[in-house]
Amino acid sequence: MCTLDKRGSLFFLTFTGDDQHRINPNVIGNLLSHLSQVKAQATPGSVLITQAQGKFFSNGFDLDWAQAAGSKQGASERLRHMVVLFKSVVASLLSLPMPTIASLTGHAAAGGFVLALSHDYIIMRRDRGVLYMSEVDLWLTIPGYVNALFREKIGDASVRRDVLLRGLKMKGDEAVKRGVVEAAYDGEEEVREASVRMAEELGKRKWDGEVYAEIRKGLFPQLSAMVGLGHKKIANPRL
């Protein structure tokens, strides 16, 4: 599960414990509750950092929970249920009125990769952890909104091909080179410190959160439409 802490203008959303931080309906509900709190408390200068304890950022959907349904059909229904629910997490991050940073000190696979990519910036650990979309290896198709996320967030078609069709496992330096993450650092502490530095620099700009969110949604129009986000006409210039 997750905790939410606020330090000054920075929000820290943290997966706690030393497990794989698998995503299931309870975790999704927890994430949505915390993101709702972040949105309600947002002020100009706010920034969200999402991070995790242990060796995983998140290892994706909770397949054990799905398989606990006791049948192949039941497991498939549970998996589809999680996919539908998780769309709201992507929508919440896409419409959050502040910059967002995924601070990865461990592995981010499948839904965990999707969660990280739903942030504005990803900072990654160089010496441990990979980004990995496991669906092609697990014989699972990719939901439309996830395809839209990758299409609009990763501009290089060859990178998308390698990630989605080859199941490429990217370490930090390669992810930087391929333009998927902002930067990679040695060690957990360095990643956390770099994430805070970036958040503080972004926060100094004190952007209007509603305007920031509308610009972000406009930057990713297909994804916004697929997760059910509309657009507002906002004019609040600082003249």
Automatic annotation (TrEMBL):
It comes from the Eukaryota. It holds the Pfam family ECH_1. InterPro entries: ClpP/crotonase-like_dom_sf (IPR029045), Enoyl-CoA_hydra/iso (IPR001753). PANTHER family: ENOYL-COA HYDRATASE-RELATED, ENOYL-COA HYDRATASE_ISOMERASE FAMILY PROTEIN. This is Enoyl-CoA delta isomerase 2, peroxisomal-like. It comes from Hibiscus sabdariffa.
